[in-house]
Amino acid sequence: AALIGTDVVPLLVAAIAISLALTPIISDLGRQFAGKLRKGPPDQKLAGDDADVVIVGMGPRGRALADALAYRGIDYVALEDDAEVFELASADGYDVVFSDPADPRAWEPLSMSTRKAVVVTRLHLGIAEDLQPILHEHFSGLTRIAALGAEHDPDAFRRAGMEPVVAHDADGDLRLLRKVLVTLGLAEEAKAIEAETDEAGPLEPA
After folding, report:
1. Which residues contact 108 (CB under 8 A, 6 or more apart)?
2. How far apart are CA 144 and CA 4, in angstroms?
């Protein structure tokens, strides 16, 4: 106040407060814009085109699995049908494709028949039940893993052709990763994290 005058101080404080309030908004807009720029032309080869693992849903659980796979040098490709979530994940460097996994027309360009596992982190039982006959007929070798929340019934997802993994507790992300590693035939990798998941209970619900 002594340097700039008491009349200027309220304006300066207001300007700083406004800039602090706008910073997160501007940051999110920047990430979304970066995500749009990363989409690339329609005929561009998809990131993770040769990956064995498909992750459906890039919320916190999908991101955690993607990070764990990338850390171990395992390729993946993620699908996200929410434009905002897709743009933020893409801007943050994840290999993610904007696509609706519930639409069978999206499977062919994604080469689903060449994948080994699809991990669904955002579940809709009705869609899983509707698609089960088609998936069984055309992609019988594809292991379909369902990351279950506390509200989900494991038996219902088993009947829909999915392999349920309890993923809503503190060790859920590790348990889900272990299931994926076992599916890929990486038993030694799975054993390396077995001690971390023992206290969380079985890999799949009884």
Report:
1. none
2. 66
Backbone dihedral angles phi then psi of residue 41, each to the nearest 5 degrees? -70, 155
Q: Specify whether the CB–CB gap between 56 and 119 falls below 8 A.
A: yes
CB count in 10 Å sphere of residue 121: 23
CA distances for 32 relative to 70, 87, 205, angstroms: 23, 5, 38
For the segment 124-174, what is each residue's pLDDT rounded down to a tens digit?
Answer: 777 777 777 777 777 778 899 999 988 889 999 898 889 999 898 888 899
Q: How far apart are CA 178 and CA 147, in angstroms?
A: 12
Within a 13 Å sphere around the CA of 190, how many CA atoms are in the beta-carbon half?
14
Task: Please give the Cα distance from 170 to 200 (Å, whole number).
Answer: 8
Instruction: Check whether 52 has a pLDDT greater than 80.
Output: yes
Distance between CA atoms of residues 66 and 180, nearest Å: 11
Supply 52's token pair: 């064995």
CA dist., res. 29 & res. 126, Å (int)? 34
- List, in sequence order, every residue forming a beta bridge with 63; answer none if it has no partner: none
Q: Where are the beta strands (DSSP E) in the chain?
A: 53-56, 76-80, 96-98, 117-120, 143-148, 163-166
Residue where the block lists tokens 């404080």: 13
Among the listed residues 43, 41, 67, 40, the one whose alpha carbon sits nearest the alpha carbon of residue 53: 67
What's the CA gap between 111 and 75, in Å, rounded? 15
